[in-house]
Each structure stands twice: as C-alpha cells, then as structure tokens.
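In line with agreed milestones, the collection of sequences with tokenised folds has grown. One record among many is set out beneath this paragraph:
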Amino acid sequence: MNYPSGIKKQRKKQNITKYNNRGMGLEEEINSVNNFYIEKNIAIIYKKPTPIHIVKIDYKTKKNPIIREAFFEQPSTTDYNGIYKGFYLDFDVKETNNLSKFPLSNILKHQIDHLYKIWKNGGIAFMIIRFKVNFDTYMITIEQLLNYIKKSEVKYIPKTFFDNNCHKISYNYINKLDYIQIIDKFLEEKNEKKEH
C-alpha cells in the first residue's frame, strides 16, 4: 500500500529458524578426523546411516537411480559409533549459534535414553557440542549431561558450565579436531576413580 506522503511501509524481516543440517559443519570435521583415525589404525568410528524406507525409485539410468519418495523408519539415535582401545563409543554432535548457552531442546529425549543405555552397559557415551560463534568445541559425557539436567531448572546449558566442567577439544595441525585425546583423558580419569 502506498501512503499519501510517498512513504513506503517498512516490512519487518522475519527471522526463520532452520533446523535442518544444524550440525553439518561439525559433522564434516568429525567425518574427516574419523577417516584419519581409521587410516592410522587409531580407532574405528563410523557415521550411522539414517534408517529410511524407500517407496519410489526412478530408474531413468541404471547407473544413477534417484529416490523419489522415502520415509524414516524410526527416529535416528545418535550420529556416530565405533571402537577405541577395546571400548565401544557412541556419540552425537550438535552445534549452536548461541554465544552463551546451548539449548537442551537441541537434544532429543530418545538420544539421551540411547546414550544412557550405552553408558550403563559399559560404553563411552557422550556428545560433542560446538558454539559456532567462536568455534569452541566440547565433549560432555552422558553422565555430566544427566547430572546437569537433574540439578538444573533451566532449559539450556550455559557456556560457563562447559568451560568449567567439560573437556574442550583443541585443534591440531594433523587431524584438526582431535577428540580421541579427550577420550584418553576420560579413560585416565575413569581409571583413577577405580583405583581410589
């Protein structure tokens, strides 16, 4: 609508939150470092495929069929699993654009339940969380996450909690995001607890 004085009404730009591919930058880094671990025989860790049921495929060419219709068979649990030094690992990766807190709504209940079961059965269950604004990346164990949720009334984890309680994953020249170093620290801490 044009106003009499020629002034055009300014439309407010709507912020639309996109939830798809929320962790793809971090996932690509994890995939790269996992390939390095496999090549160097350090650990065997793979990205889990999302379970889908294919309904319709277009076979225009035999070499490149295209999936035209599919649906998820069940909710995906976590992003990665594998083995390191005889220990089963299972973990998920998440990113946030928030500078000061990580929203718990980014973690689904069935993911927490799955990681809890892994931990209770002797596996190493954790999440890798990145604050995208400053690229600070942390490992939080499922035990730490559950303790925080139980004690806290807020629906987020402040960054200060990660700074004070979780292992920060540093970068190095060879394999960039070397989270296996943090697993080693976790295993050392676990052994120290057993000895006392």
User: Anything to note?
Assistant: Residues 24-39 form the longest helix (16 residues). Residues 77 and 114 are 7 Å apart (CA to CA).
